[in-house]
Design brief:
Elements lengths: L1 H11 L3 E9 L8 E7 L2 E7 L4 E6 L1 H11 L4 E10 L2 E9 L5 E8 L4 H10 L11 H5 L14 H16 L10 E6 L5 H13 L4 E7 L2 H14 L4 E5 L13 E8 L2 H11 L4 E7 L3 H5 L12 H22 L2 E7 L10 E7 L4 H18 L4 H8 L1
Parallel strand pairs: 8-9, 8-11, 9-10, 11-12
Antiparallel strand pairs: 1-2, 1-5, 2-3, 3-4, 5-6, 6-7, 12-14, 13-14
């Protein structure tokens, strides 16, 4: 184990971009996942509970010591990305219950330099480099001169990927009046600010956006930022998605990384509101993992990691079918590359006419899947109540 701890320490001193500690060693562990992200000359530590995330800025030495303390004793898995000498290496460390460490590494194939230059020349982003968007400067993605910080290229591409997904669903939104948008579990609201910029500056549409989150201190910071940016129709409030009530009809619902069943409550709210566009990046799908039991498909529930991933995929597939049955065209898309986060799926749904035959087929699929795995998803319960 000492050899691996020294190796992990070494990553923090050169080339490490991101390290994810996961698979808690016991049920009493306070955090489900801890992420270290390279920021300027140090690292930001993000510690995730079931419902909250806590941030802490660390020097490379401090970050390496905290990661080493977590691995093995508190977390049984590390996934990391290193960039050095023009190469990108992804590595995975796993600790067995017997204390044995298994390591796998692979290099990402880099395109030829000429191809990279050509790609950089031709790629056009909805939010290009130099856009007058103060949130991107505050996030550390843009320099004060409007250039993309080298270490934030992946984040810059992720933001544009999100903007593209919104753009693809834009035609489903109403015309001739302001668009009302709710962002559930908005957190620090970086993408909420991007949404406001997209609609007001790129599409030249009037919007009213409300961000909702449980953490009052974060909400206060977001409201101050919105005021500082001059975003008059962007407001944030503290509250639980389960209790949220809108005083006007909602056209679009966004829920990015709302934990576990909070996503279901947000989706149910969107369906009840008959929102024209729904964008959801689910997170921490624990509910079905706890319920799943099956004799015929036990190969999918016997092994912990397989069961966890099966439960997550089953959760989102059932959600998509239920939304479709409620009169939506629903897609499940890749939001970011798997090398950056395992939570990489986005559900996008646009309101449309669905024939009764399609609705019945979707509901029958959900019923068969639920019976096969002995589960009862929260979204199904919430929609049945209606």
């Amino acid at each position: 184990m000492n050899d691996y701890t020294d190796e992990i320490r070494g990553y923090f001193l050169g080339g490490l971009k991101r390290l994810v500690c996961s698979n808690p060693a016991g049920k009493d562990e306070p955090y489900k996942r801890v992420v270290f992200v390279q920021k300027d000359k140090g690292f930001q530590k993000e510690s995730y509970t079931e419902t909250q995330v806590f941030h802490k800025n660390l020097t490379p030495a401090e970050a390496s010591e905290e990661a080493v303390k977590l691995f093995g004793a508190h977390m049984r898995q590390l996934n990391l990305t290193i960039e050095a000498q023009g190469e990108t290496v992804n590595a995975e460390y796993k600790v067995s219950k017997g204390g044995k460490v298994f390591v796998s590494k692979h290099k990402e194939a880099a395109p030829a330099k000429e191809q990279q230059l050509s790609h950089n020349r031709t790629k056009k982003y909805l939010i290009p480099e130099g856009s007058p968007l103060p949130a991107l400067t505050d996030m550390g993605i843009f320099t004060k001169e409007g250039k993309v910080v080298a270490s934030m290229q992946d984040k810059f591409r992720q933001i544009n990927r999100f903007a593209e997904m919104v753009d693809d669903g834009f035609d489903a939104l109403p015309t001739g009046r302001p668009i009302h948008i709710i962002d559930f579990g908005c957190g620090k609201s970086y993408l909420t600010f991007i949404l406001y910029y997209y609609f007001t500056e790129i599409k030249k549409r009037e919007v009213r956006i409300t961000g909702l989150d449980l953490k009052k201190d974060v909400i206060e910071n977001c409201n101050r930022a919105a005021e500082r940016y001059g975003y008059e129709n962007l407001h944030f409030q503290a509250g639980d998605v389960k209790d949220f009530v809108s005083d006007t009809p909602v056209d679009m619902v966004v829920t990015l990384h709302a934990c576990d069943t909070a996503t279901d409550y947000a989706l149910a709210f969107a369906v009840k509101q008959k929102a024209s566009l729904i964008l959801s990046v689910p997170c921490c799908q624990h509910e079905l993992n706890k319920q799943m039991k099956t004799d015929e498909l036990s190969v999918l529930t016997r092994y912990g990691i397989v069961k966890e991933r099966t439960a997550a995929l089953l959760t989102d597939a059932i959600r998509a079918d239920l939304i479709t049955a409620c009169g939506y065209k629903t897609q499940i898309l890749e939001f970011v590359d798997m090398s950056h986060t395992p939570k990489n799926l986005l559900i996008r749904a646009t309101k449309c006419f669905q024939p009764v035959t399609v609705k019945r087929h979707m509901l029958a699929e959900v019923k068969r899947a639920a019976e096969a795995f002995s589960v009862k998803p929260t979204l199904q319960k919430l929609l049945e109540e209606e």
